[in-house]
Amino acid sequence: MAWPPSIMAVVSPTKVAAPCKLLLINRLRKKAQQMHLQGFFGNLIGSERFIYFLCCENRENSEIDAYLQSIADAFKLCVHTQSPYTISLCISGRCKRLSEYSQMFPRMVYALSESYFHGKEFVMFLDHFRNREKAANQRISLDSYYPEVLSATIQQDREQLEAVLQKISVELIKSRKSPFEAQLAIIRLIQHIELCGITVGVPENVLLGYYESAVSEILATRFIADTCACFREYCKKVAQAIETHEENEESVFAALVKEYIAQHYEETLHLRDIAAAMNYSDGHFARVFRKTFGTTFILYLKSYRMEQSRVLLAQTHIPIEQIAYRVGYNSYSYFCTCFKQDCGISPGAYRASKSGESAME
Fold it and tell me: Which of 24, 29, 106, 281 has its CA 20 to 30 A from that of 201?
């Protein structure tokens, strides 16, 4: 009795034109013949994938995985030693009828998406594969990494950029999202950097060219490492453009500080935190900050938090005590004291006044 598993391969690192893929299939066909394998290749037109339907003799369960793994290893070696490509492989279980394979095919495609996170030349047995748990229905946000990325980009600090890219990779892998959603998260981060570049004086058409090129390359990647490599190259280009076109050093410093505070004002934030993130000593950061903003860091942060609290008081029904904690105050009474000093009235009176204005409108 024959046992016909199948091996689906995805060619990497980029989508391969039909002639290139057919060349790989022909090479693998010869390899299969050399190994005395019985089976045939199927070319999935319009896709970077192809399938090898393998017919082999019955084997004990303890033997079959090792046997199929040896075939997968031979196919991988054949591809990457005879071409500039690599392949990731998904091996299905027994299919007695074609209808069984048609049911298994979508699972194989889904399983192969895991190679995006695991790396090149990944081999997966479908019977061992467990679907990723369905994540909460919300998109991946990398906003918290933006200040670090921006600082590393503008200051052309490769070590800092590599460190934050490593953290981003871990975050994307843990997200349990699809490769496409991970790519979109990186693209949204690029959009933030593009806006900052415009703010500090880089011509919009220059950044648009970088953006379009980066997006095209990222969406064509098959592995998270390649996605990060495209992002790294984009940051390098933006850093060079900022160095060429920046209006002045203070505008760059201001952009970095504003972005960092916007992302972290809800937390317990100290001058040393933002100084370290921007690779400044505490004293030098304090001096440059005062020169750039005309005030101290503490007063600027307090003003920013007060501005955010006024927005929340006027536009939401969130309890005032929750607003205090949301804008970075650990003490409700201290928040009320600071608010009255800043606005001349209590948070409750401010909300009531804004509610009255809305009613009149």
Answer: 281
β pairing state of 86-91 and 123-125: parallel
Within a domain: residue 285?
no
pLDDT in tens, 222-235: 888 889 999 999 99
Model confidence at 323: pLDDT above 90? yes
170 and 264: one domain? yes
| 3-state secondary structure (DSSP) of residue 265 | coil
Please state, in angstroms and rounded to a whole number, the distance separating the CA atoms of residues 310 and 302. Answer: 12
Determine the Cα–Cα distance for residues 67 and 125; give it in Å rounded to an integer. 12
* Contacting residues for 157 by C-beta, under 8 A, at least 6 apart: 151, 279
* Structural domains of the chain, count: 3
In this model, does residue 361 exceed pLDDT 70?
no
Do the domain assignments include residue 207? yes
234-239, long-range: CB < 8 A, 24+ apart? 234/190, 234/193, 234/210, 235/149, 235/152, 235/153, 235/161, 235/193, 236/156, 237/210, 238/153, 238/193, 238/194, 238/197, 238/202, 238/207, 238/210, 239/153, 239/154, 239/155, 239/156
Could you tell me the CATH number of the domain that includes residue 81? Answer: 3.30.70.270
Residue-wise pLDDT tens digits, 167-176 = 999 888 888 7
**Tokens 């690029």 -> residue:** 190
Say what the pTM is.
0.65
| Average pLDDT score over the chain | 82
The per-residue pLDDT for 16 is 44
pLDDT score of 17 more than 50: no
The conformational region for residue 58 under phi > 0 = left, psi -120 to 50 = alpha, else beta, is beta
Looking at the structure, do residues 306 and 251 belong to the same domain, yes or no?
A: no
Examine the pLDDT at 208 and tell me if it is beyond 80: yes
Sign of the Cα pseudo-torsion (330, 336, 342, 348, in order): positive
Q: Domain of 302: which CATH number?
A: 1.10.10.60
Q: With 70 as the cut, is the pLDDT of residue 244 above it?
A: yes
- 216 is in which domain, residue-wise? 143-270
Distances from the Cα of 275 to the Cα of 148, 151, 270, 330, angstroms: 11, 11, 9, 22
